[in-house]
Amino acid sequence: FEKCCDYVTISSAETPAIKLTSTNGIATVTGSIVNVTFVSDGSVMGSGFRLHFENNTNVFVEDENCGGLIIGENGLLNYKLRTYYPNNERCVYLLHSPNSRSITLELLEDEFEVCCDFLHVNTIDPTNGTLRNDTVAITRANNTRTFDESLLVIVFRSDSGTRGKGFSLQFTSNGTNANLGYNYKLRHVSDSYGTIDYPSAEWGDEESTNNEIFVLASSLNTRDGDALFTSMINWNSGTFQKSNDSCDYGSLSFYSTQYFKGWLERPRLPSVNATSTCSNVIHEPARRNIFNTEFSSFLAIYKPISVGVYACLSCLLLHFCLQGNDKCGGVYVGNNSGEIIYKENIRYDANEQCVFLVQVPQAETIVFSLQTRGFEDCCDYVTVGSLAAFGETQSPPVIMSTTNSTTIITGSVAIVTFTSDGSIQQFGFRLQFHARTKATTNFQYTYILAHQNQPPPFEFSQQMGPNQVAIFAYARSFKNNTQLNITSFRPQINARCDSDSLSIY
Questions:
Q1: What per-residue string of b and e applies to 231-258 under the rule 16 or more CB within 10 Å gives b?
Q2: Phi and psi at residue 273, in whole multiples of 5°?
Q3: Backbone phi, then psi, for 274, in 5-degree steps?
Q4: What positions does the domain CUB occupy (predicted)?
């Protein structure tokens, strides 16, 4: 049948619908009853299909998909084995063995760069619904590791340099899992945009009980030469129930992959301000851009509150704005380092005005180094400037050029711009950054970064907490006029007459 328009899906009460194609022809479904659906459109008619199924606790996964769900006691994951994988991949796998006490991983074969490409494994703490900061690298030198959990979060990450070939990872379950009072509902998405409504009929019920932990993973399939993607995550609505005997609430935690090792903790719902009221139910209103994540890979963990309480998490809206190295601007967050690649070896347009927001959490100073450049020194330029938490930029932006390719800024957040004139169009640039010194004291402010350049409607809203700074950048890759409307702004004023402020540049 037609790859574009006709398809087969399989699902069960425990597993959401999985679309089967010629490149994604193998899937594992939990449950004794499986629904198989074939859908054809109204255009070209094709031929049918043959679908094989078997009952087996051993799982063999070998396909081209970057990430996914793997449910079984024992098995093998082969990803692009002996085949070159693309640059800048962040493939997220949720590996679950429901009836086991621990899982052993063994890397049987790999041909990826030891220096720069990695298999990383984390576990989830089911008592509070958070991702543990326990990242373990599975390498040739450390090829076998046992984890004392029934669910593992596995990430394969490649850098933007030399490409390698894939891997073969074997997993083996150990022991019998005692009744710990919770179970997992898992989902992986690889679409460029979508909406997650949980709980819903898709999950076999309309309620989320206290012992269900919902884990959502996202990672996109990429091709060689694809741009670096960032995802804009929007929250549509949701309610969180309070515990009967305390002010503890159900929670939704977000994480995004970092440039190198580990995960970066992003916003957690409900907010601290909302929980301080200790009301029975908290309704979190809709918010756009609750966070941006590089590489379009992220993790969301929802855990209801304790015994006898039902929580309703309704409609988590996910937007992937696909703003990569051919898009004008974006948000770049690095654990210790990172890089901005914009139209490197690609001709840029006339009259571009691009804004890139950079953050290196806990950095006291950041070093920026212009690695490659193809633009005119006379007329097109890259600037780097630092930002004060409340006020204007601390110093005039530094213009990066062939003769001034390195600069140091103070603070953990920087604003990078690229501007081209209306004459000759040449090629873009690669700008690397890393923390030069780390802060010795805790930061007084936390930053929320957001960027937009996608099609209308253009809108940004943010509910602010104490000592928070939101920086929103808007930039298009062509010259145009922009009208800005402020639809709502309610500043708070303290006893010293200090006020919240909104500055526009």
A1: bbbbbbebebbbbeeeeebbbbbbbbbb
A2: -60, -40
A3: -70, -40
A4: 66-174, 328-436
Amino acid at 375: F
Cα–Cα nearest to 153, from 93, 229, 81? 93
Residue labelled with tokens 């305390």: 246
Q: What is the CA radius of gyration of the chain?
A: 24
Sign of CA dihedral 238, 244, 248, 253: negative
Phi, psi dihedral angles at 27 (to 5 degrees): -150, 155
Tens digit of each residue's pLDDT (9 = 90 or more) over 362-393: 788 899 999 888 888 788 889 999 876 555 44
Q: How many CB atoms sit inside 10 A of residue 345's CB?
A: 10
Q: How far apart are CA 38 and CA 50, in angstroms?
A: 11
CA distance 476 to 355: 9
Q: Which residue is listed with tokens 């996914």?
A: 68
Task: Measure the CA angle with vertex 55, ends 54 and 57; round to 5°.
Answer: 125
Say if residues 193 and 318 touch (Cβ distance below 8 Å): yes
Is pLDDT of 279 > 80?
yes
Angstrom distance (rounded) from CA 169 to CA 150: 17
Taking CA 181 as the corner, what is the angle to CA 176 and CA 185, rounded to the nearest 5 degrees? 85
504: number of Cβ within 10 Å = 6
Strand, coil or helix: 273: helix
Calculate mean pLDDT across residues 337-345. 79
Tokens matching residue 86: 């693309």
Residues facing residue 271 across a β-bridge = none
- Whether pLDDT at 253 is above 70: yes
Contact 362, 434 (CB under 8 A): no
The tokens describing 136, both together, are 């373990």
Q: What is the pLDDT of residue 232?
A: 65
Among 167, 174, 318, smallest CA distance to 254 is for 318
Tell me the β-bridge partners of 358. 332, 414
Residues with Cβ < 8 Å from 262, sequence gap 6 or more? 120, 122, 133, 135, 335
> What distances in angstroms separate CA 233 from CA 186, 296, 311, 472, one per listed residue?
19, 10, 22, 14
Arithmetic mean of pLDDT, 256-265? 76
Task: Report the alpha-carbon distance of residue 505 to residue 492 in Å, rounded.
Answer: 22
- Our measurement of the distance from residue 313's CA atom to the centroid of its chain's CA atoms, rounded to an integer in Å, reads 20
The distance in angstroms from the start CA to the end CA of the chain is 53
